[in-house]
Design brief:
InterPro entries: DHFR (IPR012259), DHFR-like_dom_sf (IPR024072), DHFR_CS (IPR017925), DHFR_dom (IPR001796). The chain is an alpha/beta fold. The chain has helices at about 25-35, 45-50, 80-85, 90, 100-105, and strands spanning about 1-10, 10-15, 40, 60-65, 75-80, 95, 115-120, 125-130, 135-140, 145, 150-160. The protein has one domain: Dihydrofolate Reductase, subunit A.
């Protein structure tokens, strides 16, 4: 299964290489969803992670980059994204695409499900959530974070191609 996971505030997922909010509940959700799975991120997303969290623990980390000389200690480099995403391994194992915007867009044709945190705050940004194709989109109730932000967790599943 290839899934995608992101948080967005009215479509914004990033600003200047970072998330323009701090939502501990979303970080805990991300951890619970991706733990013990493989994660794929772009080079800029890898570099945006605090060094103490690189690689993400208890997950197989993959970093997509066009530069085969890029150094990502503890992660495996992916220089052929299409080949990586079409690997039969992902029929039996879970891979979570975790950004950034370019990687989401490239992976969207093969993503089976998405775990999306919607945050109700207006922020400026330069990176935006991908558009989800037709499918089932269900959201839980709005909740209030310890920091005062309203958020909810949503799940999307790709529509079946054949009935």
């Amino acid at each position: 299964m290839i899934g995608a996971i992101w948080a967005h505030a009215h479509g914004v997922i990033g600003a200047d290489g970072d998330m323009p909010w701090y939502l501990p509940e979303d970080l805990a959700h991300f951890k619970s969803v991706t733990m013990s799975s493989a994660v794929l991120m772009g080079r800029a997303t890898w570099q945006s992670l605090s060094e103490r969290f690189r690689p993400l623990p208890r997950r197989e980390n993959f970093v997509a980059t066009k530069n085969p000389e890029f150094s990502a200690p503890g992660a495996r480099l992916v220089t052929d994204l299409d080949g990586f995403l079409s690997d039969p391994r992902w029929q039996d194992e879970d891979l979570w695409v975790m950004g950034g915007g370019e990687i989401y867009r490239a992976a969207m044709p093969v993503i089976d499900r998405a775990s999306v945190t919607e945050i109700d705050v207006r922020v400026a940004g330069d990176t935006f959530a991908p558009e989800l194709p037709s499918g089932q989109y269900h959201c839980g109730p709005w909740q209030k974070s310890a920091r005062g932000l309203s958020y909810r967790f949503c799940d999307w599943t790709r529509a079946a191609l054949h009935s």
